[in-house]
Amino acid sequence: EKAVNLKKDLAEMQEWMTQAEEEYLEKDFEYKSPEELENAVEEMKRAKEDVLQKEVRVKILKDNIKMLATKVPASGQDLVTELNVVLENYQLLCNRIRGKCHTLEEVWSCWIELLQYLDLETAWLNNLEERVQMTGNLPDKLDAVNDALESLESVLRHPADNRTQIRELGQTLIDGGILDDIISEKLEAFNARYEELSHLAVSRQIALEQQLQTMRETDHMLQVLQESLGDLDRQLTSYLTDRIDAFQMPQEAQ
């Protein structure tokens, strides 16, 4: 009777493992929204806990069958053979569910990381857009133009590492068919805004550099003219002081 009960327990255990495999490992999942992906992660976590909780039951079965095989070798040997099959299938199921759970957790982490990088780069784009707008109505002063140029250039020196991460994380998820529509839409919008703002910012940078160069050249010309006028003023003053008649001077002095 004990052998019959143990055989029944083995059959029930095998049936449960078959159902678990069908439910957790053989279903085709399509992760088209973050909610679906998050739910799948939580479901696999529960599946892993459920399978690992059966470890106690498997151990009890193993001990009981081995004890029976020791006491009644004739009826226990067949059970040991069935037990070995169940133990092998159970270990395989545990490994596969652990692996799938780990994979889904990695995918979810990849999605969260992508969102974080997008948030960082969006904040940078907002800052860049603000700096570009600030260059629109500058006072016609060299210091103001120079400060605006330096401010814009400091933002443009932003490293490209985050954008590289966005591209690689997004492509990894899209290649796996995970959230591909949502990610493609987000990346398209981000890249379009990045291209537009970066081109606009570079154009404004070039315009400010040219404006600054023109203002510096004008200032230099004014300085030279001011010095020339100063020399002429001192020379004419000396003529007046010495009471020299203009008709006594060279033509250019007259």
TrEMBL record:
First and last residue of the signal peptide: none
Regions crossing the membrane: none
InterPro entries according to UniProt: Spectrin/alpha-actinin, Spectrin_repeat
The protein's name in its UniProt record: UTRO protein
Coiled coil: 3-64
The entry's keywords: Coiled coil
Pfam families noted in UniProt: Spectrin
Encoding gene, per UniProt annotation: Utrn_1
SMART domains: SPEC
